């Protein structure tokens, strides 16, 4: 079997590649990346490296040829029409390369009523895959937990958690736990064709999250949400990304980001790391 991971030099892609390498031989592992030099620095000679750009279909056809299982991670680009165009090229390339199983790794943002500005892409994906000639598996993940620890010093300085979520809640999951589950799905044919939602063990209200962050940091952090406009202006980096980020928290305020499942435990046999343990471990190692 040949397993091919796209975007393997990104944080999630690197985690997935490392977990996959624990389960398959060196001759079975392939990564498809824009920057082979960076991939070489990360993985050395432990995987086969193919070069392809998401915007060039011919390169992807060549990179995907011979692939049995393709683990596709979309690029971090906006607006949605750019991602959709890239995805179209990837679908066409996978069909031409005769990929046997297309595993899409996406985000928990495919609700029809979601105001998240990236939601159109995630709504489009399952419909496009269903209309393709590919056998496929859909994976959705909750919000990454990993960015919380680096954000903590700013929260301590502000003495507030500013997310404009109101009475909504957010489920957080680590990239490591996502990667463990994705790698297991890739190597177990009995799991192909499913739809999985990879989450942490619980969703947190913002009051609960502020309390947890206070407990771990030893500092008082209260939930005092910014207005939508203030949040967009404050966190507008890269330029123009503020409204996109704000729309994510608006989706959370509509109770669209709190989904909680047992899928990680069912797939891997181990529960995902709880948020308190993850935060403590990350801060201890800083």
**First-residue to last-residue Cα separation:** 39 Å
Give the number of DSSP strands.
12
Q: How much helicity do the residues have?
A: 40-55%
Instruction: Walk across the major sheet and give the strand order.
Output: 3-2-1-4-5-6-10
| Main sheet record | 7 strands, parallel
- Tell the overall outline: globular
Would you tell me the overall average pLDDT? 95
Named CATH architecture of the domain at 3-144 and 173-200 and 258-272 = 3-Layer(aba) Sandwich
Number of helices: 12
* Radius of gyration from CA coordinates: 19 Å
Give the SSE order as H and E letters. Answer: EHEHEHEHEHEEHEEHEEHEHHHH
Q: CATH superfamily assignment of the domain at 3-144 and 173-200 and 258-272?
A: NAD(P)-binding Rossmann-like Domain
As a percent range, the share of strand residues is 15-25%
Assembly state (oligomeric) = single chain
CATH topology (fold) name of the domain at 3-144 and 173-200 and 258-272: Rossmann fold
Uncertain stretches: none
The top-level CATH class of the domain at 3-144 and 173-200 and 258-272 is Alpha Beta
Structural class: alpha/beta
